[in-house]
Design a protein that fits this description.
Elements: H1 15-18, E1 31-34, E2 37-40, H2 44-55, E3 60-63, E4 79-80, H3 87-98, H4 102-124, E5 131-138, H5 141-156, E6 163-167, H6 168-174, E7 182-191, H7 194-207, E8 211-213, E9 218-222, E10 228-231, E11 234-237, E12 240-243, H8 253-256, E13 261-270, H9 275-280, E14 286-289, E15 295-299, E16 305-312, H10 321-332, E17 341-351, E18 358-363, E19 366-370, H11 376-392, H12 396-402, H13 412-433
Parallel strand pairs: 1-11, 2-3, 2-12, 3-8, 5-14, 12-19
Antiparallel strand pairs: 4-7, 5-7, 6-7, 9-10, 10-11, 13-16, 13-17, 14-15, 15-16, 18-19
Length: 434
């Protein structure tokens, strides 16, 4: 990692931007291009799907309004965990089509993203600070009940050598914090530099022949037997199109309006902590707690604490992310009282009301994939594989997700985020009463 790289003005001034391995410099779309598949969106969904398709020999073109990894894919907490958004709602809905197999389907799905990422990093030599080790931490007795159930299932399914259930004293040996009653220590879960991963995967797709265009905002998708993607200065004619912009676009509003809403997550990174880093987190673990609106954190390779939390469900950015998160940091690690914050930034997460990722078709050969509700790194790679399979002709897993029913909020832009905020308030209230 080269921490001396000057942040590019096109990107948010985050720790990730300041520590890029290399900046992207793909051209904007000019003129007409013909390919097998056009992908809209240069985040993990679009890039991961592009790699999958290019590896299978498809001619792919990907267009991004800003730069590769500009949105949530390059701004998130960097944790790769086996947590799927909406798994309980998913289980209820998918039971109609999968029957008794639904539990096995969801269990294996939750770990598939890990394998895709590990294999891709190894195959293409992507430098993204990939490390194993994670704590899912309890802050109250009811959380311990949840963790015990999760631990028992993991052991029953053969993960006994990868998970350990810790009590308060066990957590205290791993973190210099008295905040937690216990935790699951999971060595399969991972953490990494997400922007370097996304840019590395785009580079891998390009090495396989994929065409990548930055600074190329899509103005229109033309449907028909041969669909097309139109930008201000160019056009891509394709056999199939994938819309993979998550919450960062306003395309196809007639069908997609009211289905997904932005929640703003804040993240900060402290100054380098020196010997304090190994004191507060000696095993270099990523951590998040069991609350519905949770805190999450990990160390960076240069010994900073990267800390996020306190999602804002109004859809508006916070004016002072560091001011909001500093009390959380100091409550978690009293040794960091008064620590300097070097970076602060926000990340818009695409939230779905029932938390189930949304996969579907806008027309016969125009697809969409979106809505990971804060569990994006692993889930986007899972969905990228599912979408590539579907466009290749294998609709098995795609149909399972596409059959799920989603809440579509009338006048979504007006009522969506207020409804989301009210729902979050309700669940937080329930959590306090447990």
């Amino acid at each position: 990692m080269n921490a001396a790289v000057k942040p590019a003005p096109e990107r948010v001034a985050s720790y990730y931007t300041a520590t890029l391995n290399e900046e992207t410099d793909y051209p904007s779309l000019q003129g007409q291009v013909s390919v097998d598949i056009a992908i809209i969106g240069g985040g993990f969904t679009g890039v991961a799907t592009a790699v999958e398709l290019a590896e299978r020999g498809y001619k792919v073109a990907l267009v991004e309004t800003h730069k590769i990894g500009w949105g949530a894919s390059g701004r998130n907490g960097g944790q790769v965990t086996g947590s799927l958004s909406g798994d309980e709602a998913m289980r209820k809905q998918m039971r109609r089509t999968l029957g008794a197999e639904v539990d096995d389907f969801i269990w294996h799905l939750r770990w598939r993203g890990h394998e895709i990422i590990k294999n891709r990093v190894a195959r293409y030599g992507i430098q993204c600070d990939l490390k194993h080790g994670h704590l899912h931490a309890a802050m109250k007795p009811s959380h311990m009940d949840e963790l015990k159930a999760s631990y028992d299932e993991a052991v029953r399914r053969g993960m006994g050598d990868e998970v350990t259930l810790l009590d308060r004293a066990g957590v205290r040996k791993m973190l210099d914090s008295d905040l937690y009653l216990g935790a699951i220590h999971n060595t399969r879960n991972m953490h990494l530099h997400p922007l370097n991963l996304c840019i590395g995967e785009a580079k891998a797709a390009a090495s396989l022949g994929a065409l990548i265009f930055e600074h190329s905002e899509v103005k229109e998708i033309i449907h028909g037997d041969t669909p097309a993607v139109v930008t201000a200065q160019g056009r891509i004619d394709a056999k199939q199109v994938l819309l993979a912009g998550d919450v960062y676009h306003k395309l196809e509003r007639k069908q997609l309006k009211g289905m997904i809403f932005p929640a703003m997550g804040g993240i900060v990174t402290t100054e380098p902590l020196g010997e304090l880093a190994s004191r507060i987190n000696p095993n270099d673990l990523a951590v998040y707690d069991c609350r519905f609106v949770l805190d999450y954190y990990r160390l960076t390779p240069d010994g900073r604490l990267l800390f996020g939390g306190g999602a804002n469900y109004s859809g508006r950015d916070s004016r002072d992310i560091a001011g909001e998160l500093r009390p959380c940091i100091e409550r978690t690690f009293p040794a960091l009282k008064g620590v300097k914050i070097d970076f602060q930034w926000s990340c818009a997460m695409g939230i779905v009301m029932n938390r189930i990722p949304q996969l579907g078709k806008l027309s016969q050969n125009v697809w969409y994939c979106q809505g990971y509700s804060g569990h994006g790194i692993a889930t986007t790679h899972i969905m990228g594989e599912i979408m590539a399979n579907a466009m290749h002709g294998d609709l098995t897993q795609f149909d399972t997700f596409a059959a799920c029913k989603h809440i579509k909020v009338p006048l979504g832009d007006v009522f969506g985020n207020p409804m989301l905020a009210a729902g979050m308030w309700y669940y937080q209230l329930l959590e306090k009463l447990r």
